[in-house]
Amino acid sequence: MAETLRPSPLAVAVLSLLHAGPMHPYAMQRLIKLWGKDRVVNVGQRANLYKTIRRLEEAGLVTVLHTERDQRYPERTVYQVTDEGRIAAHDWLARMVALPRNEFTQFPAALSFVMLLGPEDALAAMEQRAQALADTLAAIDSDLAEYAGTLPRVTLMDDEYRRAVTAAELSWLRGVIKDLQAGTLTWNFEMFAEIAGELPGADVPGLAPG
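The structure corresponding to this sequence follows.
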């Protein structure tokens, strides 16, 4: 069963947390948020966390240790990682680090059809994104400055990576914005009508321009 279970960032996070010791789902969600890992692991919906844990349990990678009962809180099931779970976590992490994966994020998909916005609207949207990226970059720098002196670097590598990717995107985006402002990057629908017949798939029935 473990061989057929598809690894995910949340599943890896659960197994990694349980390496430190048994834990209930609320504590897992709280620690992921407290450590700032919710920026790279989607743990916003606890239902997704429970679903992931259930799949890990069905695959034999985690098991129930006991159920905590306290009148102040609802019952909480405490889980622990199995030997198979430790092996799976190691294998999944190695694979996720080693093999790039096309994750079909929104921005590249939007860029592939950005010509529909027109140059002016595209410029306005990109300027807004550039400001958001600059704010994100400043926040990452602040976090790194705060924790770099107290935490081992290996615990901050996700932040280092986010900073590198954010900085690279911002640099590229500012270049595109400069070209849009200068008019060296521009387009119109007439341009696409002229080249439509030369595009791959132009001979497919029903794809005539117009």
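The two ends are 52 Å apart (CA to CA).
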